Amino acid sequence: xxxxxxxxxxxxxxxxxLLQAGVVSSTFVFGGxxxxxxxxxxxxGLLRGSVAGAVFGFAGGLVVDLVTLDTLGVTSLVxxxxxxxxxxxxxxxGRGRALAPVLATGVIxxxxxxxxVLLHYMLGETVVAHQALVTALxxxxxxxxxxxxxVFRLVRRLAGGRLVLxxxxxxxxVV
Length: 175
Hints:
single chain, Arp2/3 complex 21 kDa subunit ARPC3
């Protein structure tokens, strides 16, 4: 990843994190809110790999945690894992598949929802599981999947093309 590509992706994550904290999280459709930052992190993970996805996820989550004054680190940890999972999927199975952004966004939204509830529970915060995992998560998955492909195309245009993985030329067995 070049320096200009990294700067463009960083600026994109910062702006989307501010939008998520200020505008998008308060927009409810069918009882749930879309998670635009999660969709952008998944797209960056698919395009740039697991390490870049994890780094951008951590940075975006930290911005959201600082702006919303929520428990510091919860959103960062959830988005770090989401970016890493998306990057691993993009590096292995999802490479070259047309539906990879939609599938990855749907699955990672569900996993992030469960992981977020688990983290809040482990921290001793009160969480209504039915509200978080059924009432809010089902519309959020639907809205995130609807946003997945257009956001993926926009992120690819703004932050550069696909990750190029060079195949190994030879394998050596060390005994």
